[in-house]
Input
Amino acid sequence: MDKKEIPPVNRDFLQGVSEVLAKARKNAKTAVNLSMVYAYFEIGRMIVEEEQHGANRAAYGKQILKELSAYLTKIYGKGFSVTNLKQMRQFYLAYANDQIGQTLSDQFKNLPTVSTGRKFYLSWSHYLKLMRIDNIEERHFYEIESVKNDWSLSELKRQFNSALYERLLLSTDKKEVYRLALEGQKAETPRDIVKDPYILEFLGLPEAPSYSETEMESRIISHLQQFLLELGTGFAFMGRQKRFTFDEEHFMVDLVFYNRLLRCFVLFDLKIGELKHQDIGQMQMYVHYYDRMVKLADENPTIGIILCKDKNNAVVEMTLPEDNSQIFASKYETVLPSKEALQQLLQEQITDESRGEDE
Output
């Protein structure tokens, strides 16, 4: 009697089991990291309270850190140098009177709270970076975005170094500015997903436009994961050089994405030189075509974003209708910007708006 051939084990089954284990290990690691964060907060609190008992607080504080470091190192080994204990003290001082938006807290109801009612969501390495951000609203923004987008420490540093907070402030409806510190970046309107400028330093392109639009497009595809992170939450890549024919003429859309939160197509057109009104008109045609021929009836209107090295705001304003909510022009930078320069630009914009209101 012939033995029946045994079919191979379903690969999806094998991958499914593997994913369960991987998730469990990640959760276990996350739980350990969070436990240490809560412990370091309490250690910082105890150090601060003990320091307040000494008559000569500065001298007594140094003695506390020195003796505590020796004591803990003898019992637990590395990780409790005087420098590390100072960081725990700084951590407590930074977050002792700090509360974050209720939205994030409600999403993690299972997490414990410290005596002040504060919850922590990230690794100790994340908080070492965050607590060095002096602006509390900016610090809250990066904490919320790190949690929402599962940013690694390197991604948090990259977003901070690219001045994401300042860039969003520059391109956000000023009535919604403070929401950034309460809920992070949200995608409820087309304007919410647009940055100005976009920072594309990961493409490795020179600051001067000595490259072609084709080369830029190819590098974006080669660094698609990083480009998606720069775009923000909810983007899915649909294709490059998407061709369509209209009136027997062929057209190509450089990059096509879909935003799951806004439920709409997002088209990108790349421009190396100065932005002209013809470029805006071309994007208007792309958007109209997708609205009439591609999108489904229950999907929202298509958004078009022209990425350009240089733009004239007057040209943009005069070409587009006043109630425009579909087409945007944003600059891109191929090197990390100066946070100081963006902060100055932001301050100038706030000053200009205040003058306009006074008039």
Strands lie at 198-199, 235-246, 249-259, 264-274, 303-310, 327-333. The mean pLDDT is 84. The chain has 14 helices and six strands. The radius of gyration is 26 Å.
